[in-house]
Amino acid sequence: MVETGRIRVAKDKADLVKFLISTDGRTGPFQTYVDIIVFAAALGAKHNKRVPLGEISKREPSPIPQEQFIVRGYDTVINLIAITETKNLSVLSFSENQSREKRNYIFEEYANGGLEILQSEFRGAVDYSERILLILSSERVEHKKDSEFDLSRFLS
């Protein structure tokens, strides 16, 4: 683990991340790299897909300063993913630099896993925004099914 105070992106996912942002006349579904990475980490965590980064992207997108996540309130997501993964509140310790390093490392790997899921979902897609809406819609339907009270279990 290398402590940088920055959130890193795997080199093999850099093009995908760049394509998902709304710049250079493109209308990507996300406004910032930070938004993309947090969405990917949440998706990776939801599907329990944690993937080591391997080679790190040094250019676009270069490692993102952690302050950009904090300003948007996304440090909460980083912390929740770390707690869920380690099942230990000490990972939130602010006195130890290693705790921040560990939280970031876990978050980066879940983001990388989420980006892998997105790569797979986007194969053959023309409109990434539409595909993301489909992913979110199917997640919502799945969640609704899980939370509905099902009377059929009382029938025998």
UniProtKB/TrEMBL annotation:
InterPro entries: DNA_S_mod_dnd_assoc_4. It comes from the Bacteria. This is Dnd system-associated protein 4. It comes from Chroogloeocystis siderophila 5.2 s.c.1.
